[in-house]
Amino acid sequence: MDNRIESSETLRNKCGACFRQFNKVEHLVDHMRTSYHSVHEPMCGICRKHCRSFESLREHLIGPLPKVECARIFGVRGCNICLTILDTPNSLRAHRGACQLSRVSPQGLLSRMSNLGIKDDLLKVDGGRIRGPQVVALGCKMVGGGRDGSLDLCARVCLIDQDENIIFHSYVKPQIPVTNYRYETTGIRPEHLRDAMPLKQVQRKVQDFLCNGEPMWKIRSRSGKARILVGHGLDHELERLGIEYPAHMIRDTAKYPPLMKTSKLSNSLKYLTQAYLGYDIQTGIQDPYEDCVATMRLYMRMKSKVHQMEEYPLATDAQNRNNFAVWRQNELERMTPDELLAISRSDYYCWCLDSINVPEQ
Ligand SMILES: [Zn+2]
Ligand SMILES: [Zn+2]
Ligand SMILES: [Zn+2]
Ligand SMILES: [Zn+2]
For residues 20 and 44, what is the distance between their CA atoms, to the nearest angstrom? Predict the structure, then answer.
């Protein structure tokens, strides 16, 4: 009898998001205070369990130690790229055709090269209204400087728009001597850099293009003309280019929690492209255009997730700061797990929020 009471008690103290169970309700409340569960977390399409990252959702569905019932259904009609569950094996086949992307062909690259140089007017007009801020992806390839060639110097840069068209693609002449061209991966030889565009000039072009006429101090999220910048490991690339850009305008696939490892370390772009887009990149000589396309595609995938919209989606929003603190402990302890989940908010900015239209100012 006692046992039964205890187990129903434990069931009551089960987190409504990650399903962890707690012996005492105050432990569940503690867990909710620090977990930042939300509707923006990756979720199992079968049991509705929330996961911190797609990687942990992948483990939940595929293994090595998956949840047995979920793995069984996933094996029949789950997409191993985007991890969604389709209604039937037939709809899975149709879905897979669109979900699995393929590498950009060199021919495609050449035709897209015809627009070399910065295009000034890329406004996407939709029925006379601009659909939110423009998004661009940046990629660089580095050669080595310094005595042992380990200092990264930007030698190639590429910028694309959200339709994968090249905005800018150029060799860059570093400011100090190159001691290692890293030819096997970069394909760069001294003659490519000899008359290349100087770093300072590249820096100005890219910076101006990102700000799009807006002074840096005025750039606010999603309401002005400044462009959202997508990339992988952008801190390092921007640092090497000598470019500053506000963090709230940056979407970095290396630092986006849903795309990180369960250990909270970054995944490589090569891995993310393989796992979440279904094709290989960075084999042999690497073109920064290919990295730009991969990061842009990852961004578009993440942005197009359909999540329920909350009024104040972030734990850092003024209205949600101390969301749990406005309630008394005994009030929180009386709430059901679902009620606790309903007041919990995400601690990271979900990219689905970029798809909300912002009224023009
Ligand atoms: Zn939880
Ligand atoms: Zn979201
Ligand atoms: Zn599940
Ligand atoms: Zn899929």
Answer: 15
